[in-house]
Amino acid sequence: MKVNKFVIGGILILGAVVFLIWSSTAATQEYFLTIDELNAKGSSVVDKNLRVSGAVIGDSIQYDAQSLTLTFDVAHVSGDNADLETEGGLAIALHDAVVDPSRSRIKVVYVGPRPDLLRNEAQAIMTGHMGEDGIFYAEELLLKCPTRYEEAVPEQAS
Amino acid sequence: MIANFGFGVLVISFLVSSYSVFAAIYGERTKNPSMVESARRAMLLTWPLLTLTAGILIYLLVNNHYEVQFVYEVTSRSMPTYLKVTAWWGGQSGSLLFWSWLMSAFASLVTLRKWDRDREFLPWVIVVACVTMAFFIGMNVFFENPFAQLYETFDGVNAYTFQPANSVAFTPVDGRGLNPLLRHPGMVIHPPMLYLGFVSFVIPYAFAMAALITGRTDDRWIRLTRRWTLWAWLFLSFGLVLGSRWAYDVLGWGGFWGWDPVEIAAFMPWLTGTAFLHSVMIQEKRGMLKHWNMLLVILTYDLVIFGTFLTRSGVLSSVHAFAQSAIGPLFFAFIGLTLITSVALIIYRWNDLKSETQMTSLLSREALFLLNNLLFMSILVVCFWGVIYPLISELFTGAKVTVGPPFYQRATAPLFAALIFLMGVAPLSAWGHSTVKTLGRALWKPVIGAIVITAVLFATYTRNIGALIGFFIIALVLLVTVYEYWRGAVARQRSQGENIFTAFWNLTGRNRRRYGGYIIHISIMLMAIGIMGISIFQSETQGTLSQGQSLHIAGYEVRYKEIASWDNAGAGVNYTRSVLDIYKDGKYLGQLTPRIDYYFDSEQTMTIPGNRSTIRDDLYILLVDWEPATSTGATFKVYVNPLVNWLWFGSLLFLVGIIIAAWPENEREPVAVKAKVGVRQPSQPSQPSAAD
């Protein structure tokens, strides 16, 4: 009997942790989509937590400092690392995405300070929601610029 | 030329450390002490060799030898010398060398100690240390040569270890420089601290393996490495704190911890290491959980290797570094091999590691320690799940799914709360047997105190239910810990006739591990207050101001005074500095000067916040945007981060606590400790419930 209470306690804790992980995952998971996939799914992804990555088109960046509203377009880049590699690495893939007008694009709206790393051909990783109007409303914006530095620059969140 | 010499020394270090492995095994197998001694000396030689290698690399870095690829990638002419030196660990190949160098230093320190009674461990400690070291040096020699030089061939400019045929040496005029975000004092010492922590955890692992291989599986290995483990923990903790502070100062999002995979990678060995620190005490006192301790030290070691790999390779944040270099698969192979070998050794020695006592009471100290371990492991599982969930989900459902900070916050918050609660209860429970009654008797006073404090906070500070629960637990733990400390000191005051301060001092000195531990617990509570403050009560506002206009937030008035922009040609930076007058409830407090720095060479801006820190809150202001030509003014984002300073103050106290716990004990105690009795202090007569 002595052992049993430890076993029961252990199972209870295990169960609690499994439940915690399962429920937290279900509540917070974000679907990682490329812009092609996002456009293909259309309205079915409205209201879901999404994480979208794309190449920032420098000319489209507009910032309204009064309302701290940032708008810019991103172009489709592959979400598959092997694809990126065959394209010649992230930097080149981002560059190609920006100069290629046939790539699917999407408009992004973000409210907050303008991130330091936001610039042409940066990779934007955005978390947020798809609006009914076809605009992606980002709540979080991570940027990385692969061209410049050797080390992994910490992603700058805003 | 110099670079080739550096590579040569590196190769020799690799050979020497490999020799050390084989000599140690051979010497041990053939019972040939002179062979083991030769292995030991070879290992001692690695430190001077790697120091020379590092010295050469630093020479190249400082003297702008841009023909060397690594120098080109991490430094530039405009960088001050101290940053050029620290650029040593600014890139992947340099940090691998830095790792090996630290490893050789620690391995030498260990072998220089007196080995009289522990001779049989020596060869195996050498083997583990040198296998690890040879692996890292090998990475440098075969894949990531920091001395590779640039040559121009028909295919363009590339880095080669040896000059290829038909090529011309290529020397760029200037290097690419260090990312401005990393030119911060916190970032200069954060990586070495983290690495110190990482590398020092290899030593306890080496002793654990030696214990398993030799079959001397009592707690000798734990006693030998206890202090190492504490120092390792100190460095790792300090490294994590510095990283957080850097994020707070530099990344400009008003936070300090982002649950970024790289952060998690450094946090995971800390979790297992912390669990290990606690559970070794059960083995020392009760001879239990031996398998578990072995497993924890193995996990810590492999998570350290994993962490080194993740934090440096950029696998997670810029995925393409993975395929570029062969070191990814090799790291995984190394982790897999060491894990399998170590676990196989545990299974081999399974019966030798059987517990000497049975755990009987659910509320006994050892049971609560076990619970503490389970909670740490649960947090580890949450972290690990978060990191690998994208892979799992893609494998089984085909959908790419990730989890972000909300997942970690949600899943770990209850676990952290439970851990903290345990911190309050466990010191009051007794080894062997405790009941609800004995615990209740020790707890009721602090519980009432905590209820009173919570009620006061409810009336004056917050109505947030989560915050109140948090403050209640924190208050309880603080009261219990301070009360325990106080009781000890008063007892000492009475029995020794000392005044209360001397009593505190001597009490701490007499039982450093216990009272260092209490100080650590208190500091964790202070840090928890800070973390709760910023995560629950943070408020923010933003707005565009013209000169003389103000923003109002949480009683503060932020009045925009002026802005100026100028170049610092020498440093290659343009500064835009705004000046704000700060008032609180109408009273003038001073000025804050948030800036935007623009680095010409990297075309990158860096937002430097203006921060006014008090124990009540931080006023943290970012200059977001500004209009140079017109008078429309500038845009600011203002955060008020309540209580966050407690986090930094708590961190400092935390370090003090670890130093106290890790400080060498006076050698007055009898040296020939029998395994079971250990360094256990004669318990204070008035503290029967907490006889350490």
> What's the CATH topology name of the largest domain in chain A?
OB fold (Dihydrolipoamide Acetyltransferase, E2P)
What is the radius of gyration of chain B computed over CA atoms, rounded to a whole number of angstroms? 28 Å
Strand order of the largest sheet of chain A: 2-3-4-6-5
Mean of all residue-level pLDDT scores of chain A? 80
Oligomeric category? heterodimer
Brief account:
The complex is a heterodimer of chains A (158) and B (692). With 158 residues, chain A is α/β, with parallel strands linked by helices.
How does this structure look, described?
The complex is a heterodimer of chains A (158) and B (692). Chain A is an alpha/beta fold and 158 residues long. Chain A has two domains: 1-29; 34-144, OB fold (Dihydrolipoamide Acetyltransferase, E2P) (Beta Barrel), CATH 2.40.50. Chain A is 32% helix and 32% strand. In chain A, strands 2-3-4-6-5 form a five-stranded mixed barrel. Mean pLDDT of chain A is 80; it is low at 147-158. The radius of gyration of chain B is 28 Å and the shape is flat. Chain B has helices at residues 2-29, 33-62, 69-74, 81-86, 92-111, 122-143, 185-200, 202-214, 220-251, 261-286, 290-313, 320-324, 327-348, 365-397, 405-425, 436-460, 465-496, 500-510, 512-537, 644-662, and strands at residues 149-153, 156-160, 168-169, 401-402, 539-545, 550-553, 556-568, 573-584, 587-592, 595-599, 604-608, 610-613, 617-626, 634-642. In chain B, strands 6, 7, 8, 9, 10 and 11 form a six-stranded antiparallel β-sheet that branches. Chain B has a four-stranded antiparallel β-sheet with strand order 5-14-13-12, with helices on one face. In chain B, strands 2-1-3 form a three-stranded antiparallel β-sheet, with no helix packed on it. In chain B, helix 9 packs antiparallel against helix 10 (261-286) and helix 10 (261-286) packs antiparallel against helix 14 (365-397). With 692 residues, chain B is an alpha+beta fold. Chain B folds into three domains: 1-176; 179-434, no CATH class; 537-645. At the A-B interface, helix 1, strand 1 and helix 3 of A face helix 12, helix 14, strand 4, helix 15 and strand 11 of B. Strand 1 (30-33) of chain A pairs antiparallel with strand 4 (401-402) of chain B.
